[in-house]
Automatic annotation (TrEMBL):
<dbReference type="Pfam" id="PF00450">
    <property type="entry name" value="Peptidase_S10"/>
</dbReference>
<dbReference type="InterPro" id="IPR029058">
    <property type="entry name" value="AB_hydrolase_fold"/>
</dbReference>
<dbReference type="GO" id="GO:0006508">
    <property type="term" value="P:proteolysis"/>
</dbReference>
<dbReference type="InterPro" id="IPR001563">
    <property type="entry name" value="Peptidase_S10"/>
</dbReference>
<keyword id="KW-0325">Glycoprotein</keyword>
<keyword id="KW-0121">Carboxypeptidase</keyword>
<keyword id="KW-0645">Protease</keyword>
<dbReference type="GO" id="GO:0004185">
    <property type="term" value="F:serine-type carboxypeptidase activity"/>
</dbReference>
<keyword id="KW-0378">Hydrolase</keyword>
<dbReference type="InterPro" id="IPR018202">
    <property type="entry name" value="Ser_caboxypep_ser_AS"/>
</dbReference>
<comment type="similarity">
    <text>Belongs to the peptidase S10 family.</text>
</comment>
<protein>
    <recommendedName>
        <fullName>Carboxypeptidase</fullName>
        <ecNumber>3.4.16.-</ecNumber>
    </recommendedName>
</protein>
Length: 473
């Protein structure tokens, strides 16, 4: 299988056609989903499998994770398996399936579901898992104290999953996710690398997009005012408020942070702008900007700043900064949908759960300080992707995190990230990219927080590169 033909990306919708895949374990049939009978979908999605599986082989185990597995389409590889998780913490991976990179999508503003010509099933099999415990349809009492607990529980689930779907054993595995999955994915990957016998899959690499990698102050506060200046005509703030923001940014050591501390290569560890990993008193410019933005533009979307009225109707009820209350029921809260995908009827499904998946908080440090360097070093390829129109986590903050991280013997990127260096087939320059020592970093122009949703062509090309289906990014 190749991801290129005549210089162009291959991206055909599966149209209900998939490569032959048969599971011999009789239990697998209990999870089978008839692709011609998915409610409100007026085309055959093709076969898939979904339902609840325990996180351990303990007969008394009450904690279960919900999954939805899709086999590859006609252009996809049978040798690979892509795992996807959304973030939150506590947000459902069915969002990723339904509005980002699955074989059929119902994006905000659409009247009905449509086939996704940029589905990642055109690359390989796809496994969406609602995790940690407490997310979506998952069952049981959350017990995770930190990311190592999350990783151990997910690997336990995967062991039970592979016992049922044993034909997937030995496949090349890619761990992918976005947002708070910037915490999940590196820790899960590290757990697998450090416990090689725990899982009969061959982990190849990771994708994290618009990820939590470092401290809040770095990824949100330091770059916030500069971000507003970059998009002044979008925010449309008056001059007096801009002057107030500039004054606070200067006082809080944000405004000249890049000039003072960010270089290629780095000259040493990059300091915090103050003593807090979140913000010093009087230095919360991010919330000041948000509060002002929703006054100027009541439709202001932290996930993609370019949105204005009308706010698109969303069948999952969460198209932007605020939940929609007029959507009833949400698609995955319909009883017929639950029946079709073997989901529990007694769960009130929401895109982001009200359950605290870390009952006492997540005790883990951000992965840039802990496991991410080891994961990059042990992977064939790793990619970090960022939408340039994302305000909830800002790309320039991710740059700071990377310049402060040491992997494969050196700190940060040694040479600068080139402008307009991310070339998308059939499009041209669509942002910036840089690759060094096993890590490739992408910034996607016009994309918001959910890159596969807002820029599916770019996301498909990046995923093709991660999987080795194209030599160059």
């Amino acid at each position: 299988m190749t991801a290129r033909e005549g210089g162009e990306l291959v991206r055909r919708a599966s149209s209900g056609t998939v490569k032959n895949i048969t599971f011999t374990n009789p239990k697998a049939s209990e999870f089978f989903v008839d692709g011609s009978s998915i409610p409100l979908v007026d085309f055959d999605v093709g076969p898939s499998w979904s339902g609840l599986i325990p996180i351990s082989g303990d007969g008394n185990e009450t904690r279960k994770l919900f999954f939805w597995f899709f086999p590859p389409g006609p252009e996809g590889s049978l040798d690979d398996l892509v795992f996807w998780t959304n973030g939150g913490p506590g947000c459902s991976s069915l969002e990723g399936s339904f509005q980002e990179n699955g074989p059929f999508t119902w994006a905000p503003g659409q009247a009905k579901p449509t086939q996704n010509e940029w589905s990642w099933t055109n690359l390989s099999s796809l496994l969406y898992v609602e995790q940690p415990v407490g997310t979506g349809f998952s069952q049981g009492k959350p017990t995770a104290r930190d990311e190592n607990d999350v990783a151990a529980q997910l690997v336990g689930f995967m062991q039970q999953f592979l016992d049922i779907f044993s034909e997937l054993k030995g496949k090349k595995l890619y761990l992918t996710g976005e947002s708070y999955a910037g915490m999940y994915v590196p820790y899960i990957a590290n757990f697998i690398y450090e416990n090689a016998s725990s899982l009969d899959l061959n982990l190849q690499g990771i994708w994290v997009s618009d990820p939590v990698l470092g401290w809040d102050v770095v990824q949100t506060q330091i770059p916030a005012v500069a971000f507003v200046h970059k998009y002044e005509h979008v925010f449309a703030f008056n001059q007096s408020f801009m002057a107030e923001l500039d004054s606070i940014a200067a006082r809080c050591n944000y405004s000249d942070y890049f000039e003072k501390h960010v270089s290629y290569p780095p000259t040493g560890l990059l300091p915090l702008p103050g003593r807090s990993t979140e913000f010093e008193r009087g230095c919360d410019v991010w919330d000041m900007i948000f509060d002002a933005a929703v006054i100027v533009n009541p439709a202001f979307n932290i996930y993609r700043i370019f949105d204005t009225f009308p706010i698109l109707w969303d069948v999952l009820g969460f198209p932007g900064s605020f939940e929609q209350i007029q959507v009833s029921p949400l698609y995955f809260d319909r009883s017929d949908v639950k029946a079709a995908i073997h989901a529990p009827q007694d769960v009130d499904w929401a895109e982001c759960s009200n359950v605290n998946v870390f009952p006492r908080g997540d005790a883990s440090l951000p992965p840039a300080f802990t496991v991410l360097p080891n994961v990059i070093e042990k992977s064939n390829r790793s990619v970090i992707v960022h939408g340039l129109g994302d305000f909830i986590l800002i790309a320039e903050g991710a740059r700071v995190v990377l310049q402060n991280m040491t992997w494969n013997g050196q700190q940060g990127f040694q040479t600068p990230i080139g402008n307009d260096s991310f070339i998308v087939d059939g499009v041209g320059a669509l942002g910036n990219m840089h690759s060094e020592r096993g890590l490739t970093y992408f910034e996607v122009a016009l994309s918001g927080h959910m890159v596969p949703q807002y820029s599916p062509v770019a996301a498909f090309q990046i995923m093709s590169y991660l999987m080795g289906f194209r030599e160059n990014p």
